[in-house]
Amino acid sequence: MKAVKKILITGGAGFIGSHVTRRFVKNYPHYQVYNLDKLTYAGNLENLKDIEDAPNYIFIKGDIVNQQFLKDLFEKYHFNGVIHLAAESHVDRSITNPMEFIHTNVVGTGNLLFAAQEQINKGKLLDCFYHISTDEVYGSLGDTGLFTEETPYSPRSPYSASKASSDHLVRAFYHTYKLPVVISNCSNNYGSNQFPEKLIPLVINNILNMSPIPVYGKGENIRDWLYVEDHALAIDQVYHAGQKGQTYNIGGNNEWKNIDLIIKLCEIMDIRLNRKSGTSHKLITFVKDRAGHDLRYAIDSTKISQELGWKPTLDFETGMAKTVDWYLNNNEWLQNVISGDYEKYYDDQYKKR
Ligand code: NAD
Ligand code: DAU
């Protein structure tokens, strides 16, 4: 019988966090998984309904910005591992409200690092502190080139700058205190349970409601899309086999111009909804561009693929079909998350464009 390991996952009620939490709870029965989440607008326990009664799963409501709370938590549980996903994650919100991002992403990560280090200082081992980050820390690419782990940091939005700051703090704790850290920087995720402020679920929701599809600028910006469960698989591999002090880039090798991706979604939705071909396309509306809009992200995943054998398992066609079907089959989930503050957010964000 394997010894029980206590794993703290932060942000487990969010989009990617819920997929990671489910994977760890289901695949590792000898792990006791603690999901620490503040349940902001983006956190939703409905995402984890299927595992909420699992014997190796415990939810803890709490805020990583509260340093004393974290110190007490580490004192109580002595975690063997930390997988840190909790963050404010939406670029547009960071443009409107940067301080929230500085508090959660920078101070919150600092608090978590400090609490983990204090646990070690008190003689309780920690196997791994894994920080989940983004490709946006590298800035914006031109028409060619890929982000590697050596690409200099050049964040351009309050969101990416706050994530870059947190990456630097994580590395500082490795070099200064020998905290056993590992970092990964991933490209755009898509899949089930993503909050409909992000492009793909927002477009699906607007098509469902026959509302305009807001395309920023000319729709020429490019993103590298990865199915969320393939990100969760990569996180599993990095957590278990990643070298401490190292960074791994994770990407889908799947670049799409926004406008092409939106047109593709329009076509899929027309078929799924039995609407006349071209119905959704008519909803496309070009609106004022995002401030400081990064042109292109694209990831070179050679390192994680060569060192850890990771590669995406799902092709984009299949992933998109699964994603669209999930939103169509989970209308109640969608309605629940767009009740409340969503309408106000949407008006503030889009009416002025
Ligand atoms: P999300 O916004 O869907 O979820 C974030 C979660 O963190 C929510 O459950 C929220 O309640 C929780 N949270 C926020 N502030 C908190 C606080 N102060 N204390 C405790 N919990 C708090 O985000 P996501 O898209 O799932 O992203 C998860 C992580 O992955 C983030 O760190 C993000 O930077 C990173 N990332 C995301 C993507 C992407 O495409 N979505 C790509 C690469 C990296
Ligand atoms: O690259 C990884 C990052 O991907 C993550 O770190 C972030 O947490 C995640 O939100 C995502 O950031 P983006 O800004 O790339 O994702 P978003 O879905 O907001 O936008 C994708 C592209 O679509 C981007 O070029 C802006 C554009 N867009 C977005 C929205 C919401 C539109 O044209 N219209 C929209 O209404």
Describe it for me?
This protein has 353 residues and is of the alpha/beta class. It has a domain at 5-191 and 228-254 and 293-314: Rossmann fold (3-Layer(aba) Sandwich), CATH 3.40.50. 43% of the residues lie in helices and 17% in strands. The chain has helices spanning 15-27, 67-77, 91-96, 98-121, 158-177, 199-208, 228-241, 258-272, 302-308, 316-329, 331-338, 342-350; strands at residues 5-10, 31-37, 57-61, 81-84, 128-134, 181-186, 188-190, 213-216, 222-227, 247-250, 255-257, 284-287. It has a seven-stranded parallel sheet, with helices on both faces. The longest helix has 24 residues, at 98-121. The protein is globular, with a radius of gyration of 20 Å. The mean pLDDT is 97. Bound molecules: nicotinamide-adenine-dinucleotide and 2'deoxy-thymidine-5'-diphospho-alpha-D-glucose (DAU).
Topology overview:
Elements (H helix, E strand, L loop, with lengths): L4 E6 L4 H13 L3 E7 L19 E5 L5 H11 L3 E4 L6 H6 L1 H24 L6 E7 L23 H20 L3 E6 L1 E3 L8 H10 L4 E4 L5 E6 H14 L5 E4 L4 E3 H15 L11 E4 L14 H7 L7 H14 L1 H8 L3 H9 L3
Parallel strand pairs: 1-2, 1-4, 2-3, 4-5, 5-6, 6-10, 7-9, 8-12
Antiparallel strand pairs: 9-11
Helix pairs in contact: 1-7, 2-4, 4-5, 6-8, 8-10
The structure holds nicotinamide-adenine-dinucleotide (NAD) and 2'deoxy-thymidine-5'-diphospho-alpha-D-glucose (DAU).
